[in-house]
Amino acid sequence: MSEALAAFVRTHLRVEPVAFVPELLLYQADEPIGLWELTEGEYRSDQPPPFWAFAWAGGQGLARYLLDHPAEVAGRSVLDLASGSGLTAVAAARAGAATVRAVEVDATASAAIALNAVANEVRLDVTLADVLDQGVSELGGASVVLAGDVFYSKAMAARMLNFLRRAARDGTDVLVGDPGRAYFPGEYFTAISHYEVPVRYELESTLVRTVTVWRINPRGAARKPSVDRH
Q: What is the mean pLDDT of residues 207-228?
C-alpha cells in the first residue's frame, strides 16, 4: 500500500458506519465534489466520482445480503471484483470467508481497501490490476465471485459480464448487487433478494435506491425469480 495514498485517504475521508450495513466501517467522504476536484476527476456520464470514497447502493445491498446469509461465503475463497471501497470484500470476510481477494484498477482505491480492512479488523488480499480478460483460475482460484454496482457503463458492463459468465461456466458461484443501473444485463441473472438502500442524494439524485441481489445463470437462461423482500 502506498503510504502517500493512504495518507490522502486518511486526510480527506472519515471512518463512519455504512448506512445500510452499520456493523461495518468505511473511510467515507463528507461530500463528493470537493474530493472529486482533489483527485482531478473529469465528469463523464459513464464515470462516477471517486468511487472508493462512498458506499454505493449495489455494494451496500450485496454486503447486507452476505452478512444476513453468511453460508454463501463461510469457509470459501472469495474474489471481489471492482472492489471500490472494499465494502463487499469486508462483508465477505466478516461473514466467515476463508480468504478474500479484492481487485481494483485504481491505486487510491487499493489504499482505501487496505485501510478499510484494518478499520474492520479483517484480512483482505488486495490486487491492483485489470483482471477482466483473465479467468478465475489464473487469479489463484475462487469459489465465489462478488460484484457490487459494476454495470454503470456500457464498456464496463460488457467486460464484466464476460468475466462473470466464464467464472460461472467454470463452476464458480457469482453474486451481484445492482440498483437498476442502465447497463445491467438482467437476462443472465436470477434475483434472490431486494433491499431498499439509503443513498447520497448528490450521487444518486434520490435518497433511496432499490437494490437487487442476483445470482448468475451460467447458461444465460432467464428464470422466474424467487426472492426475499426486506
A: 76
